[in-house]
From TrEMBL:
Gene3D superfamilies: Probable brix-domain ribosomal biogenesis protein. The lineage of its organism: Eukaryota, Metazoa, Chordata, Craniata, Vertebrata. This is Ribosome production factor 1. GO terms for biological process: maturation of 5.8S rRNA; maturation of LSU-rRNA. It comes from Ibidorhyncha struthersii. It is found in: Nucleus, Nucleolus.
Length: 325
């Protein structure tokens, strides 16, 4: 039987060519190797080779750039899901008159016109466990003028009228599952809207490495990143209205809501001036991630609530590059 299509230079009359040391032929697939240990070993070698090639290519590019000097072509921008985002027709133009009118008449207008001062009630699901309790306490040190009350079997529909009677402007409910905080309901009083978020990646203060000292009483600055669509704008205004108007910069505390691919990352930092030019930041905690599930008109009403927006995974998540906030 023939031994396959392996020709040699000697048959053609020439000198036998020195065998090139090709580690992996182009058609090579690690998954074809049957032995598990061998397969794992070959996979590691293949990854190592890929890394070497990548590094060599990068060095070569850098040398070429240095040789060209000022004539070097501009650096290519790496493709990310974020910058390949599918255009959303509801993206807000800051100079749009219609948007300006909507903002002047929406439920948050009294806050932005400085007619109201935020007063927040933070509560939990029934009989919260230790971790949720600690999270609520830490959240109340981040949001000024917020008060923590524990639900004792009271329905939200009964809590809301009491909140309105006592001049609370917002209600935050932290829900938990198996002792872990997993949901946040934010209701703007007295007329709504109400947002339901899924909550994940909660880190309390003691779980954060290299954390700073406890937060002070100062009113923090608020940074809202990337809330570009009409829906995102509403959610951003909702977060902004939780904090008093004039941040006390002397406290150097910053609360950040950063939206990336529809996940809202919350971080709380203090910045430290090392010199006139150098600034360092210290995370104070807590930190958590939110994902919007629905936005409801009016205050919390699970039965007859009118929804402005609901996240429907199968219908909406057709493209990885489509975002809603």
């Amino acid at each position: 039987g023939g031994r396959g299509p392996v020709g040699s230079a000697a048959e053609d009359g020439g000198q036998p060519a020195a065998p090139e040391r090709v580690l992996f032929p182009p058609t090579f697939s690690v998954s074809e190797i049957k032995n598990k240990q061998r397969r794992h070993f070959m996979f590691l070698r293949w990854k190592q080779q890929q890394r070497k090639e990548k590094l060599a290519a990068r060095k070569k590019r850098r040398k070429e750039r240095e040789a060209l000097g000022d004539k070097a072509p501009p650096k290519a921008v790496p493709k990310t899901i974020e910058n390949q985002r599918v255009y959303d027709e509801t993206t807000v133009d800051p100079n749009d008159e219609e948007v300006a009118f909507d903002e002047a008449t929406d439920e948050f207008a009294p806050y932005f016109n400085r007619q109201t001062v935020p007063k927040i009630l933070i509560t939990t699901s029934d009989r919260p466990r230790g971790r949720t309790v600690r999270f609520c306490e830490q959240l109340s040190t981040v949001i000024p003028n917020s008060h923590v009350y524990y639900r004792r079997g009271l329905a939200l529909k009964r809590i809301i009228p009491q909140c309105i009677a006592r001049d609370f402007t917002d209600l935050i409910v932290i829900n938990e599952d198996r002792k872990i905080p997993n949901g946040l309901v934010l209701s703007h009083l007295p007329d709504g809207p109400t947002a339901h978020f899924r909550m994940s990646s909660v880190r309390l203060r003691k779980e954060i490495k290299r954390k700073g000292k406890e937060p002070t009483e100062h009113v923090p600055e608020v940074i809202l990143n990337n809330f570009t669509t009409r829906l995102g704008h509403s959610v951003g205004r909702m977060f902004a209205s939780l904090f008093p108007h004039d941040p006390q910069f002397i406290g150097r505390q910053v609360a950040t809501f950063h939206n990336q691919r529809d996940y809202i990352f919350f971080r709380f930092h203090r910045y430290i001036f090392k010199s006139e030019k150098k600034v360092g930041i210290q995370e104070l905690g807590p930190r958590f991630t939110l994902k919007l599930r629905s936005l409801q008109k009016g205050t919390f009403d699970s039965k007859f609530g009118e929804y402005e927006w609901i996240h429907k995974r199968r219908e909406m998540d057709t493209s990885r590059r489509k975002f809603h906030l």
